[in-house]
Model the fold of this input.
Amino acid sequence: MNEVEQIKDRLDIVDVISNYVPLKQAGSNWKGLSPFKNEKTPSFMVSSEKGIWHDFSSGQGGDVFSFVMLMEGIEFREALEMLAKRAGVELKPRSSYSKKDVESKNSLYDALDMAMKFYHLNLPKNQKALEYIAQKRELKKDIIQRYRIGYSPDEWSKLSDYLVSKGFDTKQLLSAGLAKGKKDSSGVYDVFRNRIMFPVFDTQKRAIGFSARALDESENAKYINTPETPIYHKSSAIYGLAQAKDSIRKLDEVILVEGNMDVLALANNGYDNTVAASGTAITLEQLRILSRLTKNIKLCFDADSAGEKATSRALEIASSLDVKLMVIVLENAKDPDELIKKDKKLWEKLVANAQYAPDYIFAIANKKFDTTSAYGKKQFAAFVLPTIVSLSDEIETHHYAKLLAQSIDVPEESILNKINSTKDSKPVTVVSKPTLDDTKPTQKPKRVLSQQEKIERIILELMLANISARDALDDIEYDEISDLHTDVFKVLRTHPKYDVVRIAKLLPKLSDYVKILSLRGEQVYSDLTEHDARLEAFTQIHRLNKISKEKTKRQLTRAIAQAESNKDYATANKLLKKYQALINEE
Done:
């Protein structure tokens, strides 16, 4: 039994999901409100017996790992580590890590957690720091608590001395980015002193670093951040994500701002789906992390040239991701913090009317450049072309190429040639293949099912949930079944009396899908008698066969036309007889 199977064996999926979604028993299953959509009638189902969940409102489903990955916005390995800890299963270190490496990292998490608590407890002890947070910034107590805001004392080694007294050594403090070594090698001193401390958490809600604001305005560096450490990486750290996750998922959108105070000001006013990049420009990794929670990302950077550049850069790096970037255009304020204090209703209006990012870039260009002159046209084109080049969708590319051509009054062909030559000259990004440790189970990109596949799914739901409905198996034209469901139908035909557990074992690659179909069937068709379930199965198979015949008739029609075009009348007559036979069967 491998690690994944051990964890599933030890954990009841109902117990795990109950930590996120209140569940009530409904027959042999459990039911609750969808954590992914706002709904009043529960449509979220969990089966303890099958170890599977399915959300009817969003169409998502899977095992305990896929659920935790979605809820926490994490990769499979992180979900594995979380659930292993809960199940008491010791994981084998990844090939690139030793057990010593894992223990070393855990000690850093412990040191940072203790440092966070130390700073948080010191905030009320410093009147100036408390006044800045509670009075000048007007942050509520629950926001101060939820974001664990703290204060680093104005002493050289107050934190270091405290952590050493708790059993940490100076090497750990240096590695965690909490201390620096003295030049004379006589000891260490604290990195953060006399600063407001904003802890940065990872997706598992562990403190990994800090963003620290100077309390003394004369300081050269207004903000300093934790340096790169084994557990803190600026390229992937996102301030406020741990606190915003639930809201992002429920609202299906995230607002990405520039600074910590913007996050806190918006959260202070009830806008909990807000995050900020931690001490660096937005990166591909940060956008990828956010895309696991929502595909709708609204940028709200400061209303200046730096904000414009950051937006353009974000659009370029997001081109490889399946996300929709929008831009909140500020009015009468330099940042969200200032605007929310001035006019809350205006903020809500601007959020609702956010512009699609490429449209925003064009709007900026229209304000900046005079397109009545040749030089102005050149500037306009130079400003918007990087955005167009970054677009991966051909339809979008042509749309904005045409818009640019109209804006600067040049032939569209010239713009397209420029775009294509620029794309051809861009270096190819080589994406490394995932290792075995990075492999993710279950969650595959969703695709729209054809009408035939939808009917096949209905039939399988009926038959997996009700053995009596399998009496209709002999009426299926198996040669016409889609690739998606061929293997499931074959197993059902060979083993019509098998329960879902045994069928799933025979289809290891489709195991979770089979269990989800069964769970859907139990929910949707729970009120049907055996007779009605059998009748419904025959009815759906008749629909399926009818679709198959219509498909065959269309193919024959095309083949007949082709044969007649080639003056192959013998073949045309044979095909016509087949077509007539199908008509006669109706």
